[in-house]
Amino acid sequence: MEVSNYIKMRDQMQERFLTYDQKEIEGKYGFAFDDDYFYVPYLFEEWRVNRHTGVVNETLTIFDLLCCGKKEIVLAGTYARTNSLKGTIKGRTIASGVHDSRAARYDGHVEQLKKACVSLSGKPYSPGDAAFVFHVFPFLPLVFQFWESDEEFPPVLKFMWDENVLDYLRFETLYYVMGDFLDALDQAFDACKTEA
Questions:
Q1: Per DSSP, which regions of the chain are E strands?
Q2: Helix (H, G, I), strand (E, B) or coil at 38
Q3: Global pTM?
Q4: By C-alpha distance, which of 16, 14, 11, 10 is closest to 60?
Protein backbone atom coordinates (compact mmCIF):
# COMPACT_ATOMS: atom_id res chain seq x y z
CA MET A 1 0.00 0.00 0.00
CA GLU A 2 1.40 3.38 -1.03
CA VAL A 3 1.97 5.87 1.77
CA SER A 4 0.36 9.28 1.19
CA ASN A 5 2.44 12.45 1.03
CA TYR A 6 0.64 13.66 4.16
CA ILE A 7 1.80 10.58 6.13
CA LYS A 8 5.37 10.89 4.81
CA MET A 9 5.49 14.56 5.77
CA ARG A 10 3.93 13.87 9.17
CA ASP A 11 6.55 11.23 9.95
CA GLN A 12 9.39 13.55 8.84
CA MET A 13 8.05 16.38 10.98
CA GLN A 14 7.64 14.09 13.98
CA GLU A 15 11.33 13.16 13.74
CA ARG A 16 12.29 16.80 13.18
CA PHE A 17 10.32 17.90 16.24
CA LEU A 18 12.41 15.57 18.45
CA THR A 19 15.59 17.40 17.39
CA TYR A 20 14.29 20.83 18.46
CA ASP A 21 15.15 22.67 21.66
CA GLN A 22 11.90 22.08 23.53
CA LYS A 23 12.80 24.71 26.14
CA GLU A 24 12.59 27.30 23.36
CA ILE A 25 9.15 25.99 22.34
CA GLU A 26 7.98 26.19 25.97
CA GLY A 27 8.19 29.98 25.97
CA LYS A 28 7.42 30.74 22.34
CA TYR A 29 3.66 30.18 21.99
CA GLY A 30 2.32 30.14 25.53
CA PHE A 31 1.04 26.55 25.32
CA ALA A 32 0.59 24.62 28.54
CA PHE A 33 3.14 21.85 29.02
CA ASP A 34 4.47 19.35 31.52
CA ASP A 35 7.36 16.86 31.48
CA ASP A 36 5.59 14.61 28.99
CA TYR A 37 3.39 16.78 26.74
CA PHE A 38 2.76 20.10 25.07
CA TYR A 39 -0.97 20.89 25.12
CA VAL A 40 -1.83 22.62 21.86
CA PRO A 41 -5.29 24.15 21.24
CA TYR A 42 -5.93 23.70 17.50
CA LEU A 43 -9.24 24.86 16.03
CA PHE A 44 -11.90 23.41 18.31
CA GLU A 45 -9.94 20.83 20.36
CA GLU A 46 -6.84 20.55 22.51
CA TRP A 47 -4.15 18.15 21.27
CA ARG A 48 -1.30 16.57 23.21
CA VAL A 49 2.17 16.40 21.67
CA ASN A 50 4.32 13.75 23.34
CA ARG A 51 7.69 15.37 24.10
CA HIS A 52 9.52 12.02 23.99
CA THR A 53 8.03 10.40 20.89
CA GLY A 54 6.49 13.32 18.97
CA VAL A 55 3.20 11.44 18.67
CA VAL A 56 0.10 13.63 18.28
CA ASN A 57 -3.20 13.19 16.49
CA GLU A 58 -3.29 16.32 14.30
CA THR A 59 0.39 16.25 13.56
CA LEU A 60 1.28 18.09 10.41
CA THR A 61 -0.26 21.46 11.21
CA ILE A 62 0.99 21.44 14.80
CA PHE A 63 4.50 20.35 13.82
CA ASP A 64 4.53 22.96 11.09
CA LEU A 65 3.92 25.60 13.74
CA LEU A 66 6.37 24.16 16.26
CA CYS A 67 9.19 23.44 13.81
CA CYS A 68 8.80 25.83 10.87
CA GLY A 69 7.59 29.08 12.42
CA LYS A 70 10.07 31.95 12.28
CA LYS A 71 11.94 32.85 15.45
CA GLU A 72 10.41 36.32 15.70
CA ILE A 73 6.68 36.21 14.94
CA VAL A 74 4.19 39.06 15.13
CA LEU A 75 0.73 39.27 13.60
CA ALA A 76 0.17 42.07 11.08
CA GLY A 77 -3.40 42.73 12.24
CA THR A 78 -4.65 42.93 8.65
CA TYR A 79 -6.15 40.14 6.55
CA ALA A 80 -5.50 38.86 3.05
CA ARG A 81 -7.01 36.07 0.95
CA THR A 82 -5.05 32.84 0.82
CA ASN A 83 -3.73 33.43 -2.69
CA SER A 84 -2.79 37.05 -1.94
CA LEU A 85 -0.57 36.57 1.09
CA LYS A 86 2.88 38.17 1.27
CA GLY A 87 5.42 35.78 -0.14
CA THR A 88 3.02 34.05 -2.53
CA ILE A 89 2.93 34.51 -6.27
CA LYS A 90 0.13 36.96 -6.99
CA GLY A 91 -2.81 35.33 -8.69
CA ARG A 92 -1.57 31.86 -7.74
CA THR A 93 -4.51 29.48 -8.03
CA ILE A 94 -3.19 26.35 -6.35
CA ALA A 95 -6.70 25.24 -5.46
CA SER A 96 -9.10 27.35 -7.47
CA GLY A 97 -12.64 26.14 -6.87
CA VAL A 98 -11.58 23.75 -4.09
CA HIS A 99 -14.44 24.96 -1.85
CA ASP A 100 -17.18 25.05 -4.50
CA SER A 101 -18.94 21.89 -3.28
CA ARG A 102 -18.96 23.20 0.30
CA ALA A 103 -20.35 26.55 -0.87
CA ALA A 104 -23.13 24.73 -2.76
CA ARG A 105 -23.90 22.69 0.38
CA TYR A 106 -24.40 25.83 2.48
CA ASP A 107 -26.33 27.75 -0.20
CA GLY A 108 -29.91 28.45 0.87
CA HIS A 109 -29.09 27.63 4.51
CA VAL A 110 -27.36 30.80 5.65
CA GLU A 111 -29.17 30.96 9.02
CA GLN A 112 -28.14 27.41 9.89
CA LEU A 113 -24.60 28.24 8.77
CA LYS A 114 -24.54 31.28 11.05
CA LYS A 115 -25.77 29.15 13.96
CA ALA A 116 -23.06 26.59 13.23
CA CYS A 117 -20.41 29.31 13.22
CA VAL A 118 -21.65 30.72 16.52
CA SER A 119 -21.69 27.21 18.04
CA LEU A 120 -17.97 26.98 17.17
CA SER A 121 -17.31 30.30 18.96
CA GLY A 122 -16.96 32.35 15.78
CA LYS A 123 -17.05 36.12 16.17
CA PRO A 124 -19.07 38.06 13.53
CA TYR A 125 -17.11 39.66 10.71
CA SER A 126 -18.02 41.68 7.62
CA PRO A 127 -18.51 41.47 4.67
CA GLY A 128 -20.38 38.26 3.86
CA ASP A 129 -23.83 36.74 4.28
CA ALA A 130 -22.21 34.56 6.96
CA ALA A 131 -18.75 35.79 7.99
CA PHE A 132 -16.89 34.99 11.21
CA VAL A 133 -13.43 35.07 12.76
CA PHE A 134 -12.14 31.84 14.32
CA HIS A 135 -8.80 30.86 15.82
CA VAL A 136 -6.61 28.12 14.41
CA PHE A 137 -4.44 28.49 17.51
CA PRO A 138 -5.31 30.89 20.33
CA PHE A 139 -3.11 33.59 18.78
CA LEU A 140 -3.72 32.89 15.06
CA PRO A 141 -7.00 34.10 13.49
CA LEU A 142 -8.79 32.75 10.44
CA VAL A 143 -11.64 34.58 8.66
CA PHE A 144 -14.41 32.52 7.06
CA GLN A 145 -16.73 34.28 4.60
CA PHE A 146 -19.75 32.96 2.72
CA TRP A 147 -22.05 34.62 0.19
CA GLU A 148 -25.26 32.97 -1.02
CA SER A 149 -25.96 32.60 -4.73
CA ASP A 150 -28.18 35.01 -6.62
CA GLU A 151 -29.53 35.19 -10.17
CA GLU A 152 -26.08 36.16 -11.49
CA PHE A 153 -23.49 34.47 -9.28
CA PRO A 154 -22.97 31.07 -7.66
CA PRO A 155 -22.38 30.80 -3.89
CA VAL A 156 -18.90 31.84 -2.75
CA LEU A 157 -16.83 30.60 0.18
CA LYS A 158 -13.56 32.36 1.04
CA PHE A 159 -10.90 32.34 3.73
CA MET A 160 -8.66 35.18 4.84
CA TRP A 161 -5.58 35.05 7.04
CA ASP A 162 -3.45 37.50 8.96
CA GLU A 163 -0.94 38.82 6.42
CA ASN A 164 1.93 37.33 8.45
CA VAL A 165 0.47 33.81 8.67
CA LEU A 166 3.35 32.42 6.58
CA ASP A 167 5.69 33.32 9.45
CA TYR A 168 3.78 30.66 11.44
CA LEU A 169 2.73 28.02 8.89
CA ARG A 170 3.76 27.00 5.39
CA PHE A 171 1.46 27.93 2.50
CA GLU A 172 0.51 24.31 1.75
CA THR A 173 -0.41 23.74 5.39
CA LEU A 174 -3.07 26.45 5.17
CA TYR A 175 -5.06 24.08 2.95
CA TYR A 176 -4.90 21.33 5.61
CA VAL A 177 -6.18 23.86 8.15
CA MET A 178 -9.04 24.94 5.88
CA GLY A 179 -9.99 21.30 5.35
CA ASP A 180 -9.94 20.59 9.10
CA PHE A 181 -11.99 23.72 9.73
CA LEU A 182 -14.60 22.83 7.10
CA ASP A 183 -14.91 19.27 8.45
CA ALA A 184 -15.72 20.69 11.90
CA LEU A 185 -18.07 23.27 10.39
CA ASP A 186 -19.91 20.56 8.43
CA GLN A 187 -20.58 18.65 11.67
CA ALA A 188 -21.87 21.79 13.39
CA PHE A 189 -23.92 22.72 10.30
CA ASP A 190 -25.55 19.27 10.19
CA ALA A 191 -26.41 19.54 13.89
CA CYS A 192 -27.99 22.97 13.33
CA LYS A 193 -30.00 21.70 10.35
CA THR A 194 -31.30 18.84 12.51
CA GLU A 195 -32.42 21.31 15.17
CA ALA A 196 -34.20 23.55 12.63
A1: 32-33, 37-42, 45-50, 79-81, 123-124, 130-137, 140-147, 156-162
A2: strand
A3: 0.75
A4: 10
